[in-house]
Amino acid sequence: MWPPRYTHHESPSVRPSVAAAIDLRRHVGRGFLRATSHVGRFTALVVELFRGLAEWRIWFPRTIEQATNIGYGSLLIVLLIAGFAGAVTALQSGYQLEGGFVPVYYAGGVVASGVILELGPVLTALILAGRIGARYAAELGTMRVTEQIDALESLGRSPVTHLLLPRIISGIIVIPALVMIANAMGIASGYFASATTLDLTWSDFTYGARFFFKGPFDLWYSLIKAYFFSLAVTVIPCYIGYNTKQGAEGVGRATTTAVVAASITILLLDTTLAKVLLGQ
Amino acid sequence: MIELRHVSKRFVDNVVLDGVDFDVRQGETVALLGPSGVGKSVLLKHIIGLIKPDTGEVIVDGLNVALLKRKELSKLRQRIGYVFQNGALFDSMDVADNIRLGITDDELYADWKYCQERVRECLRLVNLQPDVMRKFPAELSGGMRKRVGIARAIAGKPTYLLYDEPTSGLDPVNSDVIDNLVEKLQLEIGVTSVMVTHDVRGAFRTADRIALLWQAKIRAMGTAEEILASQDPAVQQFLERDFEMQISQQQGLPTKSRASSHGTQL
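The joint structure predicted for all components is written out below.
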């Protein structure tokens, strides 16, 4: 081919230091463009989601189906994780209170507050990011690379109302419910662990729990966190899965990216909400 | 009528379509031929608005597809049936539900009795027995999946049918079945069709006109006779190579190139 096309690496007139600088600028530029493109596409998707809400006849029946699937499917693992988290909190509280300077009923307070304010919502959300988030990203990613999403569009149907809204809304309904169940399970298992290892009675445990309980706000705080986390667990994996490219490898990449991104967002939201809502 | 006027499309540095002009008249079948990766499917996706052109216009029924709003595009798509290369069937739904989803009129879609009848009718049109209705795509053979894909595309009684490689990956017998089906659908429902294909023999058999996409441009377009009579070296090269390949696949005969390569080795 004439004239010959040189890259700057091959060109005899470009020094290596200049080439490195050009490379750096190119990487930064491409990174910036990619980030901007994600922001644009994510915003467009959110707008589409709000628009799609009007077509409730399409997404509502599918939402019930999805909610049943993810709700029943996640119940066992959520109970298991919350149960162990409550029990471990109780055991470790017992270990901390061994010296006798602090009354042993404090264990009840540590378990109840720890589970309701932090462990219940965060652990449940992280587990569900792995379970529901990975599932959503893999399902939508596979549908994208096998042209099922294109097929839906070609039939004049919106993938947002048929696929995304049912998944996101079912998550918003089911995840806070699962968090509340996890809270109850964590406290119950914490009590049984305290009763067996610290010889704590039910009345001591509840006395300790009430001692630290700051009224219904603690429960609201847990619920508000659960709603925010449910958005992270559903919207992010749906966005990543919906924009999957490049076959089976792309689906694998989308799935892991979705779980990592959702988990990091949950932790960021956890810190932000603690600062904003608890004022600490 | 479908019209592409000076359509260009590039993906990063790869120019896929470069000022393409292409038209399909009402009621005719046009086959779009070309080597793998040349952009035939990209051209087809422009027609239904799945891809937007960088420059140029895609006009369907007088509407500029790239400029349509969401609802207008959705309405236009209801008049176009798209048969995907690998079927693109919804794997979580059975055959009946897949085909039912092709019924694009919301009122008819909600009418369960009509849907059942329409699904049976579409299965009959693509030569499939009603007993496949409750099967899932994973339980079907490649040829059956393609036919269910066609059944889904015609369920909404479209004006246009776009076929993306309807015979790729099929043996010659099944390829013939699909070609017959394309002919039969044109006769029975009178749709306007665009068929992207590698299968030169099938294209010559089923299409009223043939176009060759070559190096991002429409290199030739005309009736089978006009294409065969073309003196364009690219057209001749493509037709010769493809005919040779298909004859060797179907009859197991040594092609000229194969015989000469054997000769060289000996």
